[in-house]
Amino acid sequence: MRSTLIFATNNQHKVDEIRSVIGDEFNIITLKEAGIDIDIPEPHDSLEKNASEKSSVIHKLTNQNCFSEDTGLEVEALNGEPGVKSARYAGEGKNFQDNIDKLLKNLVGKTNYNARFRTVISLILNNKEYLFEGICDGKIIPDQKGNNGFGYDPVFIPNRSNKTFAEMKMEEKTIFSHRRKATDKLIQFLKNHGTH
Ligand code: IMP
Q: What's the total number of domains in the chain?
């Protein structure tokens, strides 16, 4: 029987990306599919703490094995910003475009466009927590390109590519992505430890 894990997110892009790498061995169910309708808070100052918060809220509610992830875009010339604030960089209620606009405005006059995406996955398996990290290094471009993906994808080019994430199909983004690297570690761990 396939092991079931609840993925504590309401972001369908994240679900699609993780399902595409996790394969058939594990059954990932979303909050919606688990009948849970909550917006999980991300109140902390680090990706690790926010990921832990999200998985522990869902674990307390369901008492089932679950995982969450928190991701941030860390820009060198902005001292790691937007980082943990990536979702709300331009303020509460603002959208992806507002966040990109603020990022590009803050980079005007800078010469260093190096950046990275960092994902932290928090897994709660049999009442114990485990963390996995994935990093994708790259750079920000001042003119956005592409319509795929979400968030900062139109302004981020991963190293060893000349396309933004938003110009790639999901399968291509997955070759480079932070989320895939963290998910690979999660899968390896689950394979080594089993879920029972
Ligand atoms: P969170 O992990 O949901 O808190 O994500 C924070 C924010 O980072 C999202 O709202 C997006 O703006 C951005 N983000 C997270 N993952 C990605 C990605 O893979 N590509 C582009 N932006 C992302």
A: 1
